[in-house]
């Protein structure tokens, strides 16, 4: 099913800033980094951020990585961010913490009802949402619902609150396992359009990685990042090589046709394998996100500051570890999709692809709060896939 989406159908969410884009190394935004960082830093104390730390030099790679600390968090107390520049990495970590704070806040439901009692208020099957394992979901189970809107036409709908909210606080009473609760699709930005785009890219990325991970065999096809002709990608690869890091990059197929990359890094002095994923309309941005995220994942373990580090961490369960940087492989040609001149154009393109791939319009819940001043959304895409191993 394909539903044509254009910028006019997004008028309910567009702002003047979305009519263009600020092209940055490794990302596109609606405002320049200084303005975005100023917005994030104004919000930081309001969401409990007490410290923003540069942890780049704890490792030998040198890819900028920051942490934002929230001691009173009810999920992760440490949020990480990476970027091509220290400013972009600091911004990434701060925005990540701000997003999490919004998902942790109480969300009074607009109603409590079983799916079968909602009649025409739902135009999707709740069984298409990612379930917990095990799950007791059935048509007669009363669920708390929050308001959402279709990203195709802005139509109002509902989504289960437990798909949106996130907290590790122990709850009283009976809380049956129903949906897989995660940060997938949670994003922030300068505008709602920018936030929704970031959220959709994450949903698509994790769907592709989940399909590859659970499908058995190779995860995509190996590619050589240097064939892209990107100075940013080339510099990231050179930084890995100078640090003695072996890197393997793979292009992972997505039903959306968007380029999704996986970066796997390891080295002799710190053998465990670390992974990074990326998705974007721009193959360059998608690739650089995967590479910088792999470096960020490695720093999470080096710093030891995260709450969610695995105690059974190992290198692919004993797989043979390379002792020197692997030679470049030719692999597949890296795809290049048509570029758009605005964030609005990007969003219309991505929504059409996601709708066709998952046979349903993606939905958005606006979590923005006027007292915080940062646009934050949760995108829910019925039919998309997610598993714990790719979070």
UniProtKB/TrEMBL annotation:
InterPro entries: YcaO-like_dom. Residues 81-391 form the YcaO domain. It holds the Pfam family YcaO. This is YcaO-like family protein. It comes from Sphaerisporangium dianthi.
